Amino acid sequence: MINIWQKTFTKIYPGVNKEAAWRIATDINRWPEWHGDLESCTMEEPFVVGNHFMLKPKDRKAVKIILTEIQEGHSFTDCTIFPGARMYNTHALEETSEGLRITNTTVVRGPLKWLWVKLVAEHVTATIEEETEALINLVEQRT
After folding, report:
1. Are 28 and 41 spatial neighbours (Cβ–Cβ below 8 Å)?
2. Three-state secondary structure along 8-46?
3. 3-class DSSP state of 112
4. How far is CA 114 from CA 80, 87, 98, in A?
5. Which domains does the chain have, with CATH numbers?
């Protein structure tokens, strides 16, 4: 039995520029502009696999998030390490005939996944649609 919890959000946005969406989505230091629940997000290193950023939600402690996979211009996955579990978020952009498909998949694995799903992952996934809409609004303002 695989010990994972997973939730995916996907939506197609007609007429949205993929390159602009990628630039904004990967500009980690500016995430608080479109993530309403963040106090700060700081990445001092280049956006490459193995580097990390610090994400500080409002009213919570900052967490270290490591970039684990990047397909330039298409997707990236980040990982938060908790005691007894890891949470992965994959952010993907795909051009389709209907428009830009944005998909966010959150996966939590490990023996204490149940705890981190309740403490973190459920909140993270509950805000993804709202944050994606805010990202799209920002892309449309800038293009």
Report:
1. yes
2. EEEEEECCCCHHHHHHHHCCHHHHHHCCCCEEEEECCCC
3. coil
4. 15, 11, 37
5. 4-142 (3.30.530.20)
> Which amino acid belongs to residue 97?
S
Structure-token pair, residue 124: 């993270």
25-80 pLDDT, tens digit each: 999 999 999 998 999 999 999 999 999 999 999 988 999 999 999 999 999 999 99
What is the C-alpha separation between 6 and 125, in angstroms, rounded?
10
pTM of structure: 0.94
Residue pair 14/80 in contact by the 8 Å Cβ criterion: no
- pLDDT tens profile 86-128: 999 999 999 999 999 999 999 999 999 999 999 999 999 999 9
